[in-house]
Amino acid sequence: GQNIDQPTEMTATEGAIVQINCTYQTSGFNGLFWYQQHAGEAPTFLSYNVLDGLEEKGRFSSFLSRSKGYSYLLLKELQMKDSASYLCAVRGDYKLSFGAGTTVTVRA
Amino acid sequence: KAGVTQTPRYLIKTRGQQVTLSCSPISGHRSVSWYQQTPGQGLQFLFEYFSETQRNKGNFPGRFSGRQFSNSRSEMNVSTLELGDSALYLCASSRTRGASQNEQFFGPGTRLTVL
Q1: 3-state secondary structure of A81
Q2: Whether the Cβ atoms of residue A86 and residue A34 lie closer than 8 Å to each other
Q3: What is the C-alpha to C-alpha distance for residues A95 and B92, in angstroms, rounded to an integer?
Q4: Shortest CB distance from B102 goes to which of A31, A99, A100?
Q5: Which of B26, B57, B46, B40 is nearest to B89 (CA)?
Q6: Which residues of A touch B50 (CB under 8 A)?
Q7: pLDDT digits over A73-92, tens only?
Q8: What is the b/e burial string over B54-78, where b = at least 16 CB atoms within 10 angstroms of the residue's CB?
Q9: Angle at CA of residue B88, ends A46 and B6, nearest 5°
Q10: By CB distance 3.0 to 4.6 Å, which of A25, A63, B79, B96 could disulfide with B18?
Q11: Are the C-beta atoms of residues B9 and B110 closer than 8 Å to each other?
């Protein structure tokens, strides 16, 4: 089975940086994903890590340590539109298991 | 390229009824996964289909079933509806080959309300 933990809520100021941590325990590992989901909308893909290290994509970066079962999503230069839920998901075989999500609120 | 489409977008049913939801994947995507999303449980994996075969199944009762057609379109069925089945049902498609094969694209979802 898979167990995925991430904080429930985080608040940050516009222009700041926020780091969302995700820890996981899995019997099989074929990659870790981060998704963004705005209220009432479907999740949209942000990043994918399968090897250890940092993947950077614009204002968003994602880090993975397989030996520690740990990942983080870094959001830089926060904008109001970044207020959303961020979902950490681990892929084992063909099954994708999601964490409960972290609600990020960006304040002016 | 059109995205993942799901029909209907909203559905209201009563306990005991059954429901069928439809999902059309992105053109060229052959893998379709279904998820149930509720405020209390988050996103829960239901099942995944590839080439008309169920590849994996989550921990849901047998009332939840699905199938995939030769054109990769997929349907899921819930029989004997219960109040707890009220949720957003999301479909996601992905390629099966190439560097982007692991990325899943989600449809807008079907909001099911059971009264």
Answers
A1: helix
A2: yes
A3: 12
A4: A31
A5: B46
A6: 94
A7: 999 999 999 999 999 999 87
A8: ebbebebeeebbbebeeebbbbbeb
A9: 80
A10: B79
A11: yes
Q: Which two tokens stand for residue B10?
A: 């909203």
The dihedrals phi and psi of B79, each to the nearest 5 degrees, come to: -100, 160
Q: Go through chain B and tell me how many residues it has.
A: 115
- Determine the 3-state secondary structure of B68 from DSSP: strand
Comparing CA positions, the residue from A60, A75, A61, A63 lying closest to residue A22 is A63
Name residue B13's amino acid: K
- Give the nearest partner residue to A48 out of B33, B103, B109, using CB atoms: B103
The chain B residues in contact with chain A (CB within 8 A) are 31, 33, 35, 42-45, 48, 50, 55-56, 58, 90, 102-109
How far, CA to CA in Å, does B19 sit from each of B44, B75, B81? 19, 10, 8
pLDDT tens profile B59-108: 899 999 999 999 999 999 999 999 999 999 999 998 874 445 567 899 99
